[in-house]
Fold these 3 entries.
Entry 1:
Amino acid sequence: SDASKFNLVISFLSPETLQEISDIIRKPPDFDKYEYLKSEILRRLADSPDKQLEKALSGLSLGTQRPSQLLRRMQELAHNRATEDTLRVRWLTLLPQDIRKFLKVLGDDLPLQKLAETADKLTEDNLHPMVMATAPRPTQSAQTPADPIHIELVELKH
């Protein structure tokens, strides 16, 4: 019965939750007590959709994955609770600054998936940086001594 379910739920609630719904416990509705209790607990204690989305996306970072992989993960976690613009802004903040600056030049009109593909190419190029090293050229005196005294000393040694 409705009253049995209502009482059973109350018996399993934490003290914090009981305090939050104490008004319902003191004066429950005449009908649909269980449904009312359930809906009020959810309304009062559940996170808003925006807060749920924030929790789902918090802690994400690019790490070793490609930008497109990060975007797909974010889309999966968002479960259609976020607009493309919301995901775009959040995703861009997780990319390296140099990549973000380049993508900003492309503008907001580019579809998010195309932006992710471009970011993949940019990070791919950055993953294999070109190393350029130079060595000092030997000085003239080290190659061939021009000093006649030095030449004589070398000849005497041999």
Note: The two ends are 114 Å apart (CA to CA).
Entry 2:
Amino acid sequence: MIDGLPGGGAEKVVLTLAAQFLRDGDRVSLISLRDVCEYPLPEGLNYQVVTDRCRKPWRKLTELSRRARQLDAAVIRAEQQGQFDLVLSNLHKTDRIVARSRALRERNVWFCLHGVFSASYLGHRTGFDRWMKQQKIKRIYQGRNVVTVSDAVGRDLVEAFALRPAQLKTIYNPSISLPCELRRKPTASARTVTT
């Protein structure tokens, strides 16, 4: 899951991982929260866009819960072909929505962090504003499974936000298969993965 595929590095990592899962014989769904795609999609990828059509003036106030309900509907549709064995949530906005998803509560969800959060989310903040942002981020990742692109990203999350993930793993090179411990035992011959 990702908030769109506009052409950045995280997006490329997501597609590289999806392609690797497909090569491994897994069924892969990619759910995008925006209809933006600047990359060619791997053959065999189940790509689904969940767009938000709300134009009400107060839409920002209800965005996370509304988008989580929309995501729940998309997950239910996608799981008609089989329940997800692994869910990878990419980028902070998507993580905020996935964390509120009811359909994903009992799933093997991993939040993928592609950069150092303290620099991007805390660097310009001070005082109460900084503390509030730390608490919001902590609420999303505390006690959750987190995978990072480097050890430094994981250390930053733990130290700058004083949180403890349920599990913290690092994938240095997205072209290498995921560590076995991230995957649950498949219930059928092919695993079902959503990135």
Note: The CA atoms of residues 118 and 160 lie 6 Å apart.
Entry 3:
Amino acid sequence: VHPAITMHLKPHQVEGVQFIWGQPSGEHQYITGGFVFYFCISFFNMMITITSIHTILRTEELSIKTVLVVAPLNTLLNWMAEFERWAPDDEPIMVGTYNLADYGTRKERLKVMEKWSKTGGVMVLGYDMFRLLASGRFAHLLLDPGPDIVVCDEGHKLKNSESNISIVMNKLKTKRRLVLTGTPLQNNLIEYQCMVNFVKPNLLGSIKEFRNRFVNPISNGQHLDSTERDVRLMKKRSHVLHDMLQGFVQRKDYTSLAQYLCGKYEFIIKVRLSPMQVKLYRHYLDTMTNRGSDPHAVVQGSKDTGLFSDYQNLMRIWTHPRVLQLHTIRRRGPSIFAPTSAATPPHTCTTQLPAKSCIRNPVPAPVYNQPSGDHTQCAETGSHTRAERSKRSGCNLDYFRMDGSSLGKSRQRWINEFNDETDRRARLFLISTKAGSLGVNLVAANRVVIFDASWNPTHDIQSIFRVYRFGQVKCCFIYRLIAQGTMEEKIYDRQVTKQSLAFRVVDEQQINRHFTAHDLQELYNF
């Protein structure tokens, strides 16, 4: 490893580089197979990967010259910046570093890819572009024989074996595969099997075999009402699975950060609905779902598409009825509530401030105007971000707003301005959870308000680590606002279950069993 890079490596990053090369055991693997790196923050992954790539490319006896980095679109600029940042002054980090997104036409892309394949270097491109280009004239460059090494950033995108990107990625002939992820297990073990199968094909068997050997016994034993036999079997199968993965999966959680950063404090604030919201919520359950009195009729798997439609509508109620009204206006269709409804119609929502908004309004002084220079990042769904935009405009507060429609260049400019310590007006950033959960560095902020609980706990976790990361010099405060008694509270409870499963399998921790199987079917109870 080049001394200019070594001097910046943290101990856990040194372990990561050694893990790839097999130095602790004395076996020099030289990345002859696949590896999964599970780090809570992308900087760990990037630094380990860049160090390993630089060392491999400058080791002539390995005959490795081409590296392909496939990453989400939001992170491509980060990768290019990090490659440039860590290039030793006396030695270029590699022959060439190419961001395929910089080339607009197929002819230009083919030309630069042929140059990369011939002369070597690192090619960076997004998952969608890889899927589109890995056919026809590009197949021999990307798939067969493909690059010498493939790096998949945010590798949990390969969680579905039937998705187009997973199908294309599994056609790669490249044997040296490195998967980087902060959240390898998001919803269930089947997703984990798909990702592991990419780096070590057939190690865990087929999905059917994996379900019988691990998924069913582990799932049956993690409930509060599980039998003693089920619990023993769950612990045994979790231990076996952890041992099988130990040789090529390395995991570091946020405790690796603790010695370098100030504290992180998380608060769960459960908020009661206002009387008006209660009426709207009950009216929807009684008239739109026909399930209000039968919670067992829901959550029967992905076939029940009505669940997610109901969730979207109910979310608009517990967030702010104004969001429901805006949604109806955008659709230009009839409201889901009849005009003669006894419930308070959405257009009267300004007569009483809903509960979550009441939490937000009393705190502008301590959060936004503290002498200590606190900045705030608010992670929200897109629908709530739009409603919040109009309200903050009325309060005469400066803010940035990012959602799925924001252009990449604009995003980076806003991030730079927000992180500028000399700009005293940039104190608030409204971000759609999915749009801002990857490739965003907001260390100027030290307070995060997560306004909506996501079905996938990954999105909320990633939002937190946009702030709690290297470069943060202040203590961080995380506030999760949960609508008490609603479907959102049940969803947050399911997040705890999903994270416990991840700790049990990936970390081999013995996590308390939080809920009964019946609890997980009560999403419609109110």
Note: The longest helix spans residues 487-506.
